[in-house]
Amino acid sequence: MTVAAPRIRMLIDGQFIESASSQWQNVVNPATQDVLAQVPFATPGEVDAAVASAKEAFKTWRKTPIGTRARIFLKYQQLIRENMSELAHILSAEQGKTVPDAEGDVFRGLEVVEHAAAIGNLQLGELANNVANGVDTYTLLQPLGVCAGITPFNFPAMIPLWMFPMAIATGNTFILKPSEQDPMVTMRLVELALEAGIPKGVLNVVHGGEDVVNAICDHPDIKAVSFVGSTRVGTHVYNRASLAGKRVQCMMGAKNHAVVLPDANKEQSLNAMVGAAFGAAGQRCMAASTLVLVGEAREWVPDLVAKAKTLKVSGGSVAGTDVGPVISCAARERVEGLIASGVEQGAKLVLDGRNPQVDGFEKGNFVGPTIFAGVKPGMRVYDEEIFGPVLVILEADTLEDAIALINANPNGNGTALFTQSGAAARKFQEDIDVGQVGINVPIPVPVPLFSFTGSRASKLGDLGPYGKQVVMFYTQTKTITSRWFDDETLGHGVNTTISL
Ligand code: NAD
To answer: Which stretches make up the Aldehyde dehydrogenase domain (predicted)?
Structure first.
């Protein structure tokens, strides 16, 4: 007898409910093809019900004391810590990344929850005393109302946690639309959020794809949308939701270049590059997927290949695995197609990871570490985001040439420089037109004391996720100018000039 896969529920008005939808999709373990669960594509009525609940809850949540809001996230961070191992195992099974890497995924989200617990220090207005006689001006950072978040498959814990904790901590209510490819760990995090004390209607979850996303973009009662995902979908969401009058922030695709100068510490730099190119099977928006070797560092390709060959490709649940599967059969075919295009277009395939032998996981979507040398702009492996364990190597004569190459690429998510020269590092950070820069740090994702600051084609909207910027994103600044009349500040008749 086969047991039906569990059906993933939605969260509407404080209740975990089964969707009435007739459209369901399997959530599949990418290492085994086992069906773990089924996820619904919510009906329009279910999206409306979630938004109506969030709109109603906003009436009281917006006035809930800031300390009460903060304490929920204090409790929430504790619950996430206590359940870390379970969360990481759920995540690894549905997404494919290794269990230690899955813990990192949860941990980077947990840091944002900790930050949300400090909301009392963050959501502060300003006051200028005596801007005119007896007049003060001050600001309130007020929540917007119902906000929504649409998340990608590659960080199913961290990215939902980029969004709803800070939105809710600042006094908004929230509709989350997780990736339909791996919604299970997200739902476990949502259960823990309710356990921490998030009240009914303040957090809602609807599942689905294009139609649900479009319904969110169009809904007149949603005030702001946060999106993380591909450039194609993010551009659509930005345009559609902006047209509907919403505040929108979209973090999108990337092609992150790492530059290695010949004075870099060779061992450290190559280790960092291999980890940052192939970790999470290259499915990180900040993966160092493009290497620019400058001058004599061009000779380091064989050593890099030798290191990449030592990585163990296997299921994410197997101890010692370095590279797990890619998310789906379709993703594997896309990555393999791009590798074939690189060969056709004349790049030198110095390490071919296609069709690796993975004992015990013969049905998995595996692509082993793959490296192309001699890559040039105009080749698809350079022009497109591969989002798999494929590193492309370009060459430059000088640091200036490397900077010009990177600045000519449309993407601006992240970049890194490996060097022991302070002067070179300073030149790079000054002249590079990329929003997040690592100096001997391959994946420079800022902690939540700062904000995620991808730029150019990797981002639409002014303000980034988490940190100081997201407090501005999820609030409207209201400026109050006030005068209180007493015996000393009584007015002196009508004044029609522009002074206070
Ligand atoms: P995706 O764009 O396919 O999906 C993202 C979300 O959009 C999902 O919730 C999905 O259901 C929804 N969606 C998919 N197709 C849609 C459509 N046609 N219309 C409306 N909604 C649609 O992205 P993905 O494959 O899940 O994630 C990988 C991408 O995300 C990569 O490009 C990666 O670089 C990017 N990413 C960027 C960042 C960042 O911070 N810049 C972080 C993580 C991932």
So the answer is: 17-480
- pTM of full prediction above 0.95: yes
Residue located via tokens 């992240």? 414
Spacing of C-alpha 189 from chain mean position: 16
**Identity at 281, one-letter amino acid code:** A
* Residue 337 to residue 62: CA distance in whole angstroms: 50
Residue 437: which H helix or E strand, with range?
A: strand 437-439
Residue whose CA is closest, atom 3 of ligand 1? Answer: 230
For residue 231, the CA-to-ligand 1 centroid distance in Å is: 8
Identify any residues that bridge with 418 across adjacent strands, giving them in sequence order: 260
> Predicted confidence band at 167 (pLDDT cuts at 50, 70, 90)?
very high
Tell me, what amino acid is at 37? Answer: A
> What's the domain range around 286?
257-409+414-439
The yes-or-no verdict on residue 490 having pLDDT over 70 is no
Is residue 285 annotated as a catalytic residue, yes or no? yes
267 & 215 share domain = no
Q: Please state the ipTM of this predicted complex.
A: 0.98
Residue 494, domain member (yes or no): no
Give the closest residue (by CA) to ligand 1 atom 20.
210
Give the pLDDT confidence of 44-53 residue by residue, as tens digits.
999 999 999 9
Does some domain include residue 492?
no
Q: How far is the CA of 416 from the centre of ligand 1 (A)?
A: 24
Structural domain count of the chain: 2
Q: What is each CA distance from 361 to 5, 75, 144, 390, 491, in whole angstroms?
A: 21, 39, 48, 21, 82
pLDDT of 289 reads 98
- Sign of the Cα pseudo-torsion (410, 412, 418, 422, in order): positive
Q: Can you give the CATH number for the domain in which 361 is found?
A: 3.40.309.10
pLDDT of residue 489: 58
Q: What is the mean pLDDT of residues 91-112?
A: 98
Pocket-forming residues, ligand 1, beta carbon under 6 Å = 150-155, 177, 179-180, 209-210, 213, 228-230, 233, 236, 251-254, 285, 385, 387, 413, 452, 454, 458
